[in-house]
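Work Package 4 report. The design task specified in the project plan requires that, given a folded chain encoded as C-alpha cells, an amino acid be chosen for each position. We show below one input record used in the internal validation round.
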C-alpha cells in the first residue's frame, strides 16, 4: 500500500481522486485531524480511512515481550514502559527527535524552516503559534524518522552501545569533552560512564566505564568507528581482576543479556585491527 506524507497533495483512494487527505477523510465521514495523525503514526491511507482493518502487533512480538519479561523476572505489562523509557533516554542523549518509531518503519517527525524538530504537528503548531494550514506553504514539513537498532530490540545490542559513543550528533554537544564525563542509565539501573577525548581532525575517542573500571574505548572518525583492541572487553577472563569481572558482568546486566559468549561476540564484530 502507498503511504501519503502531506495533506496538501492529491490522493487516490479506490479509484477516486481527492484534493487532499482532509477531503478524503470528509468523504468517508471521518475527522480529518484523526486521519492525518494516523498517517503520521505509520498507518496506511486505507487503514487510516478504515477501509481495511488496522493490523495489530504480531504474535511474534507478543511472544518476545513474554520471553523478555520471564528473563528479567518482571511482569509482561511493564515491559512496554521499560522499553519506552530506555528509548527516550537514548534519544535524548543522542539529540534525536522525541518521537520514537517502534513498530512503524515509516513514522514521521515535523521539521520547521529553521531545522528544529517536533514529535508531532500538534506540538509544532503549539510551540510556534501557527495553524496546521501553514504546512501547505512550506513552513513545516514531515520527514521519516530514521530507525535505529535500539528502537526495536528487547535487550541492548553492541550496536546500540556503540551508538551512544559514536553517533554523529555527539559532535554537536558543547560539553562533550567535559572532564566530569557523562552518565547513561542502562537496564537494571546500571550506570554507564562515558568520557570523550578530543584527538583532533574532527575525531575523538570515547571511553566507557562502569564502577570506575574502563571496559573499552571507541575510536570515532568521520568515516566510521571501532573498539580499541586493547580494551578489557577483549581480554582473557583468566587475566581479569575481580573488579574488572564485576564491571563486565554489570555491563551485561545493563544490556539485559544472559549468554556471556554471545554477548562478547556481539562486540567483537566492532574490534579494530
Amino acid at each position: 500500500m502507498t503511504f501519503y506524507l502531506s495533506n496538501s497533495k492529491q490522493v487516490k483512494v479506490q479509484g477516486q481522486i481527492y484534493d487532499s487527505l482532509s477531503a478524503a477523510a470528509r468523504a468517508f465521514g471521518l475527522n480529518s485531524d484523526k486521519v492525518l495523525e494516523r498517517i503520521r503514526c505509520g498507518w496506511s491511507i486505507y487503514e487510516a480511512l478504515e477501509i481495511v482493518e488496522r493490523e495489530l502487533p504480531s504474535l511474534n512480538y507478543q511472544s518476545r515481550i513474554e520471553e523478555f519479561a520471564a528473563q528479567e523476572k518482571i511482569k509482561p505489562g511493564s515491559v512496554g514502559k521499560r522499553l519506552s523509557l530506555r528509548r527516550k533516554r537514548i534519544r535524548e542523549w543522542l539529540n534525536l527527535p522525541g518521537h520514537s518509531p517502534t513498530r512503524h518503519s515509516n513514522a514521521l517527525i515535523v521539521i520547521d524552516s529553521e531545522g528544529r524538530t517536533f514529535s508531532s504537528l500538534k506540538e509544532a503548531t503549539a510551540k510556534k503559534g501557527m495553524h496546521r494550514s501553514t504546512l501547505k506553504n512550506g513552513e513545516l514539513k514531515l520527514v521519516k524518522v530514521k530507525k535505529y537498532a535500539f528502537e526495536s530490540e528487547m535487550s541492548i545490542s553492541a550496536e546500540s552501545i556503540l551508538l551512544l559513543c559514536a553517533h554523529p550528533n555527539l559532535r554537536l554537544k558543547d560539553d562533550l569533552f567535559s572532564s566530569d564525563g557523562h552518565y547513561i542509565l542502562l537496564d537494571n539501573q546500571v550506570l554507564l560512564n562515558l568520557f570523550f577525548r578530543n584527538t583532533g581532525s574532527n575525531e575523538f575517542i570515547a571511553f566507557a566505564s562502569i564502577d570506575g573500571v574502563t571496559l573499552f574505548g571507541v575510536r570515532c572518525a568521520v568515516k566510521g568507528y571501532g573498539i580499541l583492541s586493547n580494551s578489557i572487553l577483549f581480554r582473557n577472563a583468566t587475566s581479569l581482576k575481580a573488579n574488572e569481572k564485576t564491571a563486565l558482568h554489570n555491563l551485561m546486566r545493563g544490556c539485559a543479556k544472559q549468554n556471556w559468549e554471545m554477548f562478547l561476540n556481539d562486540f567483537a564484530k566492532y574490534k579494530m585491527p
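The first strand starts at residue 11 and ends at 13. Validation will be extended to a larger panel in the next phase.
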